[in-house]
């Protein structure tokens, strides 16, 4: 397949996924790990995610926790590289299922590691939300100031309050300077 174009390779992988789904529809979980590789080859990262969860669950039921961990590790690197494709529910489900599988086989330290990764994701998400909301209030403050409104200080105060919940950032300093010069 080295000599084929990327589009042709993807088309072949998509055809193989379709074939696996039709042939093994009643026992799809038993071939899910193979399908994951074809999903990746086809550039179908979200589908690879779904089949990874299925394959990992199958591996855990078959008492093969090392196989399940390997599947999760491979998907984690794809998930991280393509984070824009996944929402919080998918990320929560991913790390929760990984940790549950670890606990099933008394791998407490690994379960804690995956719970901590989920917590870190939550903090990043919260920080992004707070920064975004802080910017929104900063924008409102600037707009209301340009319109000659008497409200800008309340928006500066809300932006500063939100951004104070985070480690010191340029946004917070910028907001405090903007308020001071008003």
Q: How would you summarize the topology of this molecule?
A:
Blueprint: H1 6-23, H2 28-41, H3 45-61, H4 65-81, H5 88-104, H6 108-146, H7 152-163, H8 170-180
Helix pairs in contact: 1-2, 2-3, 3-4, 3-5, 4-5, 5-6, 6-7, 7-8
What's a quick, concise take on this entry?
With 182 residues, the protein is mostly helical. The chain has eight helices and no strands.
Explained architecture:
This protein is mostly helical and 182 residues long. Helices cover 80% and strands 0% of the residues. Helix 6 runs antiparallel to helix 7. The chain is elongated and about 70 Å long. The termini are far apart.
The global form is elongated
How many DSSP-defined strands? Answer: 0
Whole-number radius of gyration?
A: 23 Å
Strand content: under 5%
Helix content: over 70%
Order of helix and strand elements from N to C terminus = HHHHHHHH
Q: Main beta sheet, described?
A: none
Number of helices: 8
Low-confidence parts: none
Please state the structural category. mainly alpha
**Distance between the first and last residues' Cα:** 65 Å
The pLDDT mean sits at 82
List keywords for this structure.
182 residues; mainly alpha; 8 helices; 80% helix; 0% strand
